[in-house]
Amino acid sequence: MGRSRPPFRRLTPAERRLWDAYPTGGWVDLRHGRETDASSGGAWGSKGLWGRSRVVRAEVISALVLDRGIGGSGRVPGVRLAGARIVGDLNLSDATIEAKVHLLDCHIAGTVSLNDARTRGVRLRRCDIFRFRASRATVDGLLDLDGSVVRAGVRLDNAHVTGQLRLSGTRVGTPGEAPYREPGADPPEAGSWNGPEGSEEPRTWESVALWAGGLVVDGSAFLRDMRATGGLRLIGARFSSGLYLQGAVVTADGSPAVHADHLQAAAAELGAGFTAHGTVRLRGARIGGVLSFHGAVLRARGRVLHLSHMQADELILLPESIEGEVNLGYSRFGVLFDRPESYPGDVRLNGLTYESLRGPATLADRLSWLRRDPGGYRPQPYEQLAAYCRRIGHEPDARRVLLARQRARRRTLRVPGRLWGRLLDGLVGYGYRPWLAGLWAALLLATGTAIFTQWPPHQIGLDESRHFNAFVYTLDLLVPVSVFEQRGAWEPAGLTQWLANGLIAAGWILATALIAGASRLLRPSNAP
């Protein structure tokens, strides 16, 4: 079957070359000399660089890939174009595209739109693009924008990419910072979304560089070395083979740098130079492998990491630098690998559970970690740390943690409760230091023995002869119930009478403290 005539009155030389090469998918290279990168800073609107010999209308490309310009071919057709200046909007929305589209070092002054389209792999590498949209699109293969500049944002919400998503080295701006809005552009999306907890003002879609809520990528998503002026919105996105942001720099003042609530990924690498100026929010995310911030630079006003209600096999929280509050509340980690410097400000830990702790932190560091919750005393973080210490065989450390829990709780009580708590703490360490009771008893016993040896009491019954023993007499006073029948046989006088009464009272107090402490120690909630 022969070729149909182009549906255009006239084609430029570049368009004619592209039209002729399309049936076989051959390359059309319009680059001059050593010039290879349209995404360089001087590419946009440079008359000398983008002459008429390199102009291709977007509607010509649309006509080709929508199969209106050819009849048939023995080879796979495709648009493979390098170094062209593409004029107008490349609108392929709602289309089913069987041809390959591969643009390299091209300048696209309008919007590339694949909304609701179904297409084979799309590659726009090192291109200068005003805006890229592929909402609800299905890309059977690779979606590649490596090294490109997208000035007014990328939209991939609810899209499905069966291969890889590649945005490595891409520079992405926001719709609010675009140099102009092209004629006939879609109106702004209705409504606005409010910033996460801690945000002082709402932010609209215009502050988002990559809008990809609900995106599904069957392969890996590579966003390495990306530069985004605006946030990355990945709410509910799924990355079956992982999300990789090493070396990316995201600047989103006043809004989240990464807003990825309920994200699902096999792994998430946000380290090795990843830089976020704004909150990284992964509330409710599910990471099947490692979530890593190793070597990241994280800064935000207020909360810098919001990792609550999420799950991950391992969280590596070893940033190069970090500023702001960290929220790990109600999350579950198999391994938490961190260090004391990972938490420069407040840290929310209530509800956090973990199987293992790694890193250089000592028990004192961990106790300081627990005390820095801005919500005040919460028992669960202490019980979780104590259970972990018991599980690894560090019973003394577990008792230290539970003692610290009682001391933290004491600060929340009223005055009588605080006084009784201080007494229990000083006498028996709330039952976690029972040896203190023995120490106090030995001290009182030695004191009483020395004083009653120097000033012995008088015998009450003179009809029988008794031999006084100061040690046994003092011990009988300390025991709540007289065992040696010395109290009724001897009567102290003067100041020693006050000493005897004090020893009796001290004995009752020590016994009560031991019973109260033992009841706390044996309480089932303290079990590992």
Descriptive report:
- This protein is an alpha/beta fold and 528 residues long.
- It has two domains: 80-177 and 208-407; 431-522.
- It is rod-shaped, with a radius of gyration of 37 Å.
- It comes from Microbispora catharanthi.
Number of strands: 38
Termini separation (Å)? Answer: 78 Å
Strand arrangement, largest sheet? 10-12-16-20-24-28-31-29-25-21-17-13
What is the mean pLDDT? 79
Region (Disordered): 167-201
Protein name: Oxidoreductase
In a few lines, what is going on in this structure?
This is Oxidoreductase. The chain is 23% helix and 27% strand. A 12-stranded parallel β-barrel has the order 10-12-16-20-24-28-31-29-25-21-17-13. Strands 11-14-18-22-26-30-27-23-19-15 form a 10-stranded parallel β-barrel.
List the helices and strands and how they pair.
Layout: H1 13-21, E1 27-29, E2 55-57, H2 58-65, E3 78-82, E4 85-87, E5 90-91, E6 96-97, E7 100-104, E8 107-113, E9 118-125, E10 128-133, E11 138-144, E12 149-150, E13 154-155, E14 160-161, E15 165-166, E16 171-172, E17 208-211, E18 216-217, E19 221-222, E20 227-229, E21 231-233, E22 238-239, E23 243-244, E24 249-251, E25 258-259, E26 264-265, E27 268-269, E28 275-277, E29 280-281, E30 286-292, E31 297-306, E32 311-316, E33 321-327, E34 332-337, E35 347-348, E36 353-358, H3 363-370, H4 379-391, H5 395-410, H6 415-428, H7 435-454, E37 458-459, H8 470-478, E38 490-491, H9 495-521
Parallel strand pairs: 1-3, 2-4, 3-7, 4-8, 5-8, 6-9, 7-9, 8-10, 9-11, 10-12, 10-13, 11-14, 11-15, 12-16, 13-17, 14-18, 15-19, 16-20, 17-21, 18-22, 19-23, 20-24, 21-25, 22-26, 23-27, 24-28, 25-29, 26-30, 27-30, 28-31, 29-31, 30-32, 31-33, 32-34, 33-35, 34-36
Antiparallel strand pairs: 37-38
